[in-house]
Amino acid sequence: MKIKFYRSFLLLSGLLLSYWSVSGQQISKEYLLLLTREWKGDRFEDGRPKVSDEILERMKLVTLEEAWAVCRNEGYNYQYEDGWMVIHPEHVLVGRAVTATFMPGRPDVQRAIDDKGHNEDGRIKSQNAWPVAMLVQGDVYVGDNFEAHVDGPTIGDNVGNAIYTNSGNGIVYNGAIRDINGLNEIEGFTAFVRSYHPSHHLNNPDRRLNTTLVGLNQPTRIGQVMVMPGDVVLGRDGGVIFIPPQLAEKVVTTSEVVRLRDMFGHQRIREKKYSAAEIDNRWSDEIEKDFSQWLNEHIDELPVAKEQIQKILESRTW
Question: For residue 288, what is the enclosing H or E element?
Answer without folding.
Answer: helix 285-297
